[in-house]
Amino acid sequence: MLACDDPIETLKKKRIILAPMSGITDIPFRLMTKKFGCEFAFTEMIDINGLLHNNRRTFSMMDTVPGDNLSGIQLVGEDAEKFLHVGKMCEDKGFKLIDINAGCPARKVVKCGKGSALMKDVKKLAKIVSMLVENLNVHITVKIRSGWDEKSINCVEVAKVLEDVGASAIGIHPRTQNQMYKGKADHELTKKIKRSVKIPVIASGNIFSAEDVEDVFGLTGCDAIFVARGALGRPWIFDEISRYFEGQENIYPPPFKKIKEIIFEHYLLYADLYGDNVAKRRMYKHLMWYFGKNKNKNEVMKEYQKIEGSGKFKKFLKKIFVEERRLVIQ
Ligand SMILES: Cc1cc2nc3c(=O)[nH]c(=O)nc-3n(C[C@H](O)[C@H](O)[C@H](O)COP(=O)(O)O)c2cc1C
């Protein structure tokens, strides 16, 4: 069912990966990135408790379709036994890579001991990973942060512990939980982790261009890089990066006419899978990102709220133009 046979070997080959993003990296978004050359992607984070309670919406996050670049599932949770139960379900579904989220900083997540709260309870995190490694025949990776706060930066120690208990790779977003997304990601820490472990290290943080990718590879020697916010409204970033490294001309961002075609394709992927109502709802934030820094977005989005169905959506897009960095509806 998945995009590759041995995900760790594939990860080392592909090197540029779509990071897990909650509410974003669903099937339509993954297919859009695949169109632009991204061949390795994760699900959004999936709460093990939702799966254990047979929550339909949570289950649907594990879905895939032919042509998907889905290569690993990311789980968020707090309890080793529960992780094992859900890990078995993932293995039965055909997943060959399970990533443990030890990085989500959201209050509602950390207050239950999940996500980056696990950076404060390394014993528990190690137990989760070792139980999964010992009992499943899949790769277990962990996406960590630099630590809980600036006084407790422990990512290098955590990475070593995780390697010792059998993790197959480490993803590192070198900001603390306290930092959330503020400040710069400190890739000096990524470099330290890379020097301290033998398993592959995947860097995450502030990757918005091919130059950022080059800088982070150069600084850290990491094995792969996650693209996250850099892909929002810009699924073409994957092609932009490969063209840069192949010495080809940069053709991005595309002209607005082309962006409208990309938007429509993205909408249709939603509509085909889930129907027009869901498509309209889920495309809202993507449209905001696709429209980028152009002014007058709010006015245009008011018009968007009024439309129904893919035919009307196409007409709506046809009427939108950019004049002097401002969206206009004609
Ligand atoms: C909207 C959004 C949702 C995210 N959801 C997840 C998630 O589900 N799991 C995860 O490990 N990281 C998640 N992240 C963090 C990203 O994977 C990435 O580590 C972070 O954005 C730093 O990379 P960037 O600065 O290049 O965006 C999310 C980030 C954003 C912006």
Can you put this structure into words, describing what you see?
This protein has 15 helices and ten strands. It is α/β, with parallel strands linked by helices. The strands form two sheets. Strands 1-8-7-6-5-4-3-2 form an eight-stranded parallel beta sheet, sandwiched between helices. Helices cover 46% and strands 17% of the residues. The longest helix has 19 residues, at 256-274. It folds into two domains: 7-245, TIM Barrel, CATH 3.20.20; 256-329. It is globular. The structure holds flavin mononucleotide. The site of flavin mononucleotide has 21 residues, from strand 2.
Q: Report the sheet with the most strands, covering strand number, pairing sense and barrel closure.
A: 8 strands, parallel
CATH architecture title of the largest domain? Alpha-Beta Barrel
Ligand species: flavin mononucleotide
Tertiary shape? globular
- CATH homology superfamily name of the largest domain: Aldolase class I
Keywords:
15 helices, 10 strands, 2 domains, 17% strand, eight-stranded parallel sheet, binds flavin mononucleotide, alpha/beta, 330 residues, TIM Barrel, two-stranded antiparallel sheet
